[in-house]
């Protein structure tokens, strides 16, 4: 079985967000990590590899430094890595990104494609289903459980108040929730091998059946009219009461001032 | 593609088990504003099996017209037949704007359909307006500025940044919209919409996956999105048992209990009580954040609350940056005493 896992390198929002003096996000000061949902998807692929002996290829689109995320994936146990990088691909929205990734995937053999449900920087959840659409594949989003039986996948697909047990014939695309499974750690041997491993690098010319008008900033149907750091309403009052009773009195006063009680 | 051919504001009227989802009414409410600004109509697109009877309720919430795609293949949500149904409606009727709820269904259907009809899609919008793109005309290129565009505003980066996005050269302009953000209208009793039946034909192929089982979460939890008062607990509450003191406080105020992601991850509370980026967006009248540190992802789901009261022993907890009233102290002492005081205050009235 051949599995492609699409991953994205994202800035880590967990350790706090850093801002430049002008108020914009300081991405350079923030740690770059493998997107959590993607990492869960990679783990699912590696478990299938452990079980059935699959070949796992990780693929990312990004700046050259996104190779770090690919090396981490190799150190976890992925077999091959592809970096799609080219200046003309920059500024892509989800349409142009999915077009690009689909163009890269057309060069590869696969039974199953796994992506994360969404990346923590954009939070759109769009690229996975859009890749499936460009490749004319069945898609199952929001996977909380994934099994393979013969030439089929059996997926628990999460909804707001329920889940569906869904069966699809491969080839197909599944998007993984972080809950799917906790990712394994890199092994020392894996890290050693990953440092030496060759990463296949593709540019615009390597994308198959893709038109220029659908790539990068110019090929993106959505355009940013305005972007800014969110203006929060800001802190109100904060008290450090001498006793819990003083704190309680304060809250009760405020609640009656606001006619809540 | 001639953009002028596209008109009216369309809403995907999500239904599950023959019941219209709340987000559909919220979208109709917003669509009414947008349609008024454009001088156009509000059209609901209802996909399902034996669902035509739901058209009237869509009319009561603001739909001028309802397009019904009724087919056995649409009985349970699956990406392919639904995407085929909605994409076919778009190709046939040519909407100017297509709104979809940012639900577990809409966030799968939206991207698939937008890729199929080759247009842009903006995810998880929290604000929609009609305006110009670019917002300010480029000097010397005033004639290139487009008017009456859908301006879609959304948070990104875990709520740290906010972007306004347009889709000037493709139609329809598509957006998914976060549940709980837009306001539905007071239903107009007896309102009727023009109902149009449309079936593009459904031919199962390999993309029609098989739903082998539907497992509903056994849950007697309330919908926290409708609560006027929420008493929300975080990891600082300490244990699932200790949520009792929050439940008592909620009970005297006629509110409900919700929680942060850490609480769900620890298995203390079910996911449908989770507030935040990966949980629900709430905007109650009063939001108590108790033992919640206030990670940005949590704040994104509750900062629109009218009054935020935070209780936390950590003076530097980021929750105090968004709280209207912050109390630094031990929740185990403050919360039970607060419940008693409120009880007393209410009894005196």
In a nutshell, what does this entry contain?
With 261 residues, chain A is an alpha/beta fold. Chain A contains six helices and 13 strands.
Descriptive report:
The complex is a heterodimer of chains A (261) and B (349). Chain A is α/β, with parallel strands linked by helices. Chain A has a single domain (2-214), classed as Rossmann fold. Chain A has helices at 36-52, 67-76, 94-105, 127-134, 188-196, 244-257, and strands at residues 2-6, 9-11, 32-34, 55-61, 80-84, 112-116, 139-149, 152-158, 162-169, 172-176, 200-202, 223-229, 237-239. In chain A, the strands form two sheets. Chain A has a nine-stranded mixed sheet with strand order 9-8-7-10-6-1-4-5-11, sandwiched between helices. In chain A, strands 2-3 form a two-stranded antiparallel sheet. In chain A, helix 2 (67-76) packs across helix 5 (188-196) and helix 3 (94-105) packs across helix 4. Chain B is an alpha/beta fold and 349 residues long. Chain B folds into two domains: 3-197, Rossmann fold (3-Layer(aba) Sandwich); 224-347, Rossmann fold, CATH 3.40.50. Chain B has eight helices and 18 strands. Chain B has helices spanning 22-38, 55-60, 79-93, 106-116, 244-253, 261-265, 296-299, 331-347, and strands spanning 9-12, 15-16, 19-20, 42-48, 65-70, 97-101, 121-125, 127-133, 146-156, 161-166, 173-177, 194-197, 210-216, 229-233, 256-259, 286-290, 307-312, 325-328. In chain B, the strands form four sheets. Chain B has a seven-stranded parallel sheet, with helices on both faces. Chain B has a five-stranded parallel sheet with strand order 15-14-16-17-18. Chain B has a three-stranded antiparallel sheet with strand order 8-9-10. In chain B, helix 5 links the parallel strand 14 and strand 15. In chain B, helix 3 crosses helix 4 (106-116) and helix 5 (244-253) runs parallel beside helix 8. Chain B starts with 8 loop residues before the first strand and ends with a helix. The mean pLDDT of chain B is 94.
């Amino acid at each position: 079985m051949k599995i492609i896992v699409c991953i994205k390198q994202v800035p880590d929002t967990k350790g706090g967000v850093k801002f430049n003096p002008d108020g914009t996000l300081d991405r350079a000061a923030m740690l770059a990590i493998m997107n959590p949902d993607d990492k869960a998807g990679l783990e699912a692929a590696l478990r299938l590899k452990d079980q059935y002996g699959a070949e796992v290829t990780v693929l990312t689109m990004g700046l050259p430094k996104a190779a770090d995320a690919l090396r981490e994936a190799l150190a976890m146990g992925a077999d091959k890595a592809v970096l799609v990088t080219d200046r003309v691909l920059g500024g892509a929205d989800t349409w142009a990104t999915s077009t690009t990734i689909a163009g890269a995937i057309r060069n590869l053999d696969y039974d199953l494609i796994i992506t994360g449900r969404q990346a923590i920087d954009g939070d759109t959840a769009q690229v996975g289903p859009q890749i499936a659409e460009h490749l004319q594949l069945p898609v199952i989003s929001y996977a909380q459980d994934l099994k393979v039986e013969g030439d089929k996948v059996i997926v628990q697909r999460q909804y707001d108040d329920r889940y569906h047990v869904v069966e699809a014939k491969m080839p197909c695309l599944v998007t993984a929730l972080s809950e799917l499974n906790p990712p394994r750690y890199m092994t020392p041997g894996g890290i050693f091998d990953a440092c030496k491993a060759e990463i296949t690098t593709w540019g615009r010319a390597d994308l198959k059946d893709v038109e220029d008008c659908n790539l990068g900033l110019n090929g993106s149907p959505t355009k940013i009219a305005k972007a800014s750091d969110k203006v929060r309403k800001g802190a109100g009052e904060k008290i450090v009461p001498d006793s819990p009773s003083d704190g309680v009195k304060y809250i009760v006063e405020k609640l009656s001032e606001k006619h809540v009680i | 593609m001639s953009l002028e051919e596209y008109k009216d504001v369309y809403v995907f009227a999500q239904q599950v088990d023959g019941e219209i989802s709340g987000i559909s009414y919220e979208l109709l409410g917003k669509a009414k504003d947008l349609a008024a600004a454009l001088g156009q109509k509000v059209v609901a697109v209802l996909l399902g099996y034996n669902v035509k009877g739901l058209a009237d309720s869509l009319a009561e919430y603001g739909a001028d017209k309802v397009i019904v795609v009724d087919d056995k293949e649409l009985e349970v949500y699956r990406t392919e037949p639904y995407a085929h149904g909605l994409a076919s409606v778009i190709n046939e009727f040519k909407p100017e704007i297509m709104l979809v709820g940012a639900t577990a269904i809409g966030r799968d259907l939206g991207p698939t359909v937008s890729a199929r009809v080759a247009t842009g899609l903006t995810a998880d919008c929290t604000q929609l307006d009609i305006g110009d793109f670019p917002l300010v005309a480029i000097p010397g290129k005033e004639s290139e500025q487009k008017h009456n565009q859908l301006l879609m505003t959304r948070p990104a980066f875990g709520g740290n940044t906010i972007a306004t996005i347009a889709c000037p050269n493709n139609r329809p302009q598509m957006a998914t919209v976060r549940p709980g953000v837009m306001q539905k209208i007071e239903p107009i009793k007896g309102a009727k919409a023009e109902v149009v039946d449309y079936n593009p034909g459904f031919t199962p192929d390999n993309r029609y996956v098989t739903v082998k089982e539907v497992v509903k979460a056994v849950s007697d939890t309330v919908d926290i999105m409708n609560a006027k008062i929420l008493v929300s607990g975080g990891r600082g509450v300490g244990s699932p048992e200790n949520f009792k003191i929050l439940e008592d406080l909620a009970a005297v105020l006629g509110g409900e209990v919700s929680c942060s992601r850490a609480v769900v991850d620890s298995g203390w509370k079910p996911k449908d009580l989770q507030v935040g980026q990966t949980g629900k967006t709430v905007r109650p009248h009063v939001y108590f954040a108790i033992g919640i540190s206030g990670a940005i992802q949590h704040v994104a789901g509750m900062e629109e609350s009218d009054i935020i009261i935070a209780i936390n022993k950590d003076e530097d907890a980021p929750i105090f940056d968004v709280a209207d009233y912050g109390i630094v102290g031990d929740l185990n002492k403050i919360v039970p005493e607060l419940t008693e005081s409120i009880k007393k205050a209410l009894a005196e009235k």
